[in-house]
């Protein structure tokens, strides 16, 4: 995807055609969590044969929505970048009102906490971002959102094993279930990885939902993060 110039009508129509096929849409949604998956796994997620999946994956690669990662003989597919994930999330906000309801299965879990291209989204992600901003721990600059030293100290003091985040920048990402911003970009990815490492969050076996632990909710609550 080219971020330097806006889409013209032909590019927009091509993008629409890439997303209009349910099998391709299913494969893209399977990768929104930021993982890289083999073609066979994506074929299974889409409910199609490997041969059919191969043709769809080629179209998505040619359209700039996917990237290919090779490890020896193995080939893995992932979203081209975080902008593709943000586009897929934002499309949910553009749907007709009658289509805004989430599927019943996993509704509460997805709304509460989920992974959006490896960063924390859902009600917990929105509350976490809001707390960082309200407490002046997160600074909005020309290069994006940056965690200030006071924020680093507060998070480390709460037991979060932070890597070197001083030079990492984040970006605001509009949450499709909460209609408010959560923290994305490299900074959001690093903070979410730290929460997973600390056991504050754990991924559920299927889908993008994340389960906050009791200790994680307690420590986040001490920082001022509340789901109420």
Q: Which terms would index this structure?
A:
2 domains; Arc Repressor Mutant, subunit A; ArsR-like_HTH; two-stranded antiparallel ribbon; 10 helices; alpha+beta; 228 residues; 18% strand; HTH_Metal-responsive_Reg; DNA binding; DNA-binding
Write a short abstract of this structure.
Keywords: DNA-binding. With 228 residues, the chain is α+β, with helices and mostly antiparallel strands. The protein has ten helices and ten strands.
Q: List the domain count as a whole number.
A: 2
Count the strands? 10
Average predicted local confidence, pLDDT: 87
Order of helices and strands: HHHHEEHHEEHEEHEEHEEH
Indicate the structural class: alpha+beta
Largest sheet: 2 strands, antiparallel
Domain HTH arsR-type: 4-99
Protein name: DNA-binding transcriptional ArsR family regulator
GO molecular function: DNA binding
Keywords: DNA-binding
Please give a structural write-up.
This is DNA-binding transcriptional ArsR family regulator. Keywords: DNA-binding. The chain has 228 residues and is α+β, with helices and mostly antiparallel strands. It folds into two domains: 9-80, Arc Repressor Mutant, subunit A (Orthogonal Bundle), CATH 1.10.10; 107-223, no CATH class. The chain has helices at residues 9-20, 22-30, 39-46, 50-62, 82-91, 107-112, 122-134, 149-157, 185-198, 214-223; strands at 66-71, 74-79, 114-116, 119-121, 138-141, 144-147, 171-174, 181-184, 201-203, 210-212. The longest helix is centred in the last third of the chain and has 14 residues, at 185-198. The chain is globular, with a radius of gyration of 18 Å.
């Amino acid at each position: 995807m080219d971020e330097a110039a806006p889409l013209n009508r032909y590019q927009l129509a091509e993008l629409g055609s890439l997303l209009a096929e349910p099998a391709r849409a299913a494969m893209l949604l399977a990768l929104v969590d930021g993982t890289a998956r083999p073609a066979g796994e994506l074929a299974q997620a889409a409910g199609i044969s490997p041969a059919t999946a191969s043709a769809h994956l080629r179209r998505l690669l040619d359209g700039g929505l996917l990237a290919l990662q090779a490890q020896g003989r193995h080939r893995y597919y992932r979203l081209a970048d975080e902008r593709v994930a943000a586009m897929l999330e934002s499309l949910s906000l553009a749907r007709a009102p009658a289509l805004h309801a989430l599927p019943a299965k996993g509704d509460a879990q997805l709304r509460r906490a989920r992974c959006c291209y490896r960063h924390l989204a859902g009600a917990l992600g929105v509350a976490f971002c809001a707390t960082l901003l309200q407490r002046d721990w997160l600074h909005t600059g020309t290069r994006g959102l940056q965690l200030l030293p006071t924020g680093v100290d507060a998070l480390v003091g709460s037991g979060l094993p932070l890597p070197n985040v001083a030079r990492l920048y984040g970006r605001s990402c509009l949450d499709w279930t909460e209609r408010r911003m959560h923290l994305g970009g490299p900074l959001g990815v690093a903070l979410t990885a730290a929460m997973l490492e600390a056991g504050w969050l754990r991924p559920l076996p299927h889908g993008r939902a994340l389960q906050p632990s009791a200790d994680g909710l307690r420590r986040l609550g001490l920082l001022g993060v509340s789901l109420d």
